[in-house]
């Protein structure tokens, strides 16, 4: 991060402190460093480019407005992902009321970091709750504890969902390789 070098900031916690104190450059740097993560998570839930962009925009706005309410700066990323997931759920609910043919036919783009199209397609076949934990665990390198906080479920449920998702992916991929 360029910002880290110029201001000698060593961690996300320092960046969050600066952003809370009104440093807009620190806030922009925090958002930029998490943009790919937000995109992957939102896309895994919504499967629609424009809805994903809406969810990310809404999330950034909420994070900016409520950053001072974050109690522990080390949980910034988890807190932000939680807001994003809630925004995705809201958009998904809105879309379930009205579905256009455009949304049905739209192909989603594999997330950044996923180079195996067969694996990506298998992940997309998973139910949303399993797909979300797989995305957070493998693509976002979040711990079970952080995933549990972000989604609002017990840690044991995260482990169970990961187990089920791995099993379904294994079964799906057997015919491919």
Give the name of the CATH architecture of the largest domain: Orthogonal Bundle
- Secondary-structure element pattern, one letter each: HHHHHHHHHH
CATH topology descriptor of the largest domain: Rna Polymerase Sigma Factor, Chain: A
Percentage beta strand: under 5%
- Catalogue the unreliable spans: 1-9, 99-108
Number of domains: 2
Give the helix/strand class.
Answer: mainly alpha
Provide an overview of this structure.
The protein is mainly alpha-helical and 177 residues long. The protein folds into 2 domains: 1-109, RNA polymerase sigma factor, region 2, helix turn helix motif (Rna Polymerase Sigma Factor, Chain: A, Orthogonal Bundle), CATH 1.10.1740; 113-177, Winged helix-like DNA-binding domain superfamily/Winged helix DNA-binding domain (Arc Repressor Mutant, subunit A), CATH 1.10.10. Helices cover 75% and strands 0% of the residues. It is built from 10 helices and no strands. It has helices at residues 2-7, 12-20, 24-46, 49-66, 76-97, 101-105, 117-125, 128-139, 144-151, 155-174. α8 crosses α10 (155-174). The chain is globular. The termini are far apart. The relative contact order is 0.11.
